Each structure stands twice: as structure tokens, then as C-alpha cells.
Amino acid sequence: MSVAAWNRFLQEQDNWPAASRVNSSTPYAVQARNALAGKTFEKKKRMSQEERHLQILQAAVKILATKGFWGMSLQDIADEIGITEAALYHYISSKDDLLNMVLSECYDTPDADEYNAVTAGVTDNDGHRVYFYPRYCLNIALYNLQRPELVQLYSVLNGEALSPTHPAHSFFIGRHMRNWEMIGSMNWILPPDVDEDRFYDLYTLAMSAMDGLQYRWLGDDSLNLLEEWISISDIIFPPSEWAGFTDPSEYDPAPDRCLLPLTLSARQ
């Protein structure tokens, strides 16, 4: 492993949700991860508009992650939260409307963006805020360990949405470039040989590897997502090239240490 500071994340598995922990009880048989384990939904008769909205979203995540969009019915959602389908229409207008709510409010959220970025950055003594991309990718894995049911939701819908007739087709087809626009707006500290074209290729490789690894993780509950990602990270970001550019812990806060010349934006 290239960064000693990452060791502590592997030692904090007891703090992960039960569905994200490694199950070693079935060493000779592959068992799918139960990403929805422990999910419960209170069935209250009286709720505020905001509480009911959240309850509907939670129920939709559970049903969509299990049945997908094509297999889900609004009756499934109504049954999950203990109301009639007719009552559900007081809160949503259609099945497509519910899907759009889930996509816009549950997965690619400002909270997720902030979590991924905040500990991947450092402010140098000149006040420049710069970010370390390998740590940013690690943070994505750490964040997704906290929300396995949403990882399953994303994986199921992403597969379904390959069909142009799926209502989320445009969302998933355009997601890669939307996220790249956000990545491009950040101030990344990168090795000297990494220009914008190569950085885009690395971004594409890292996100494709992350998606594939998460599929494997969902299908095999003996797989340690974080451990696997750290191992893959050393291949995508080899220490021989990325030493000093991997994690904020590698930053030397000397008084005359300005990181801006090491950023991609300064070299363009």
C-alpha cells in the first residue's frame, strides 16, 4: 500500500454498516451481499410533508435496489410505508417522478461531493486550496461503504438504463461527463507528466474500476471493498510516479512551500 495514512481506514471496519462488513462465515461458497440488511421504515399515521417525503424516498430506494425500475410498482411503495396507492399520489405524480426524485436527492448529492473532497484537500501557506485525486477516489469508496443500499440502487439502475427507453437513460449516459466537469473545476495537484488528457483517462479508468469493483462487492460479501480499492489504486496511481501526490498527509507544510505550481491548472 502506497500511503501509510490509509492503514487506519482498514482498521475501522467495526464502524461500517453491517451490510458493508466482510462476511467470512461462508469461505467455500460465494454469497451475495445483503445491502438492505437492517433497513426499517416507520409506519406513522401522521407525518409532516417533509417526513413523508423522506419515507417515500427511503421506500423507493429499497424497492428500486431490489426490483429495479421496471419491476417496481407504486403499489410496492405504498405497501412499504403503509398507505394506499391513491394516498401516494398526494406526494408524487407518477412512477417516473418518483425515479427522478431518487436520482436527484439520494445518490449524487452535495453531501457526497463534500465528503469526497474535504479530506482530499489541503491549504498551503499561501492560502491555495489543492486536492489529491487518489485520496479523492479512496473517499468515494469510504463514502459508499456507509450507504450499501444506495450502491445497489445505483448498480441496478445503471444496468437497466442501458436501454434507451429507460427513463434514467440520459441521466446515466451523461453522468460520466457531468462528473468530469465538476472534477475539472477543482484544483488538482498532479505529477508533472499528467496533463489534462491523461488526467481524463485516469479519471475514466478509476471510475470504471470503481463501478466494476462495486459490482463484485455486491455479489460477494466476503470481498473487502476498501482493501481491494487500495490494492487497485496502487496500480492506477503507481507510487513510483505518484509519491507526494497521493494524499494530503504527504504535504510538507514548510513556510515557503507553495503547491500552486504543482497543479494542473497552473501548467495549462
Automatic annotation (TrEMBL):
SUPFAM superfamilies linked to this entry: Homeodomain-like
A Pfam family this chain is assigned to: TetR_N
DNA-binding region: 73-92
Lineage: Bacteria, Bacillati, Actinomycetota, Actinomycetes, Bifidobacteriales
One function term, GO molecular function aspect: transcription cis-regulatory region binding
Residues of the HTH tetR-type domain: 50-110
Coiled-coil stretches: none
Alphabetic keyword roster: DNA-binding, Transcription, Transcription regulation
Native organism: Bifidobacterium erythrocebi
Keyword Transcription regulation annotated: yes
Descriptive protein name: TetR family transcriptional regulator
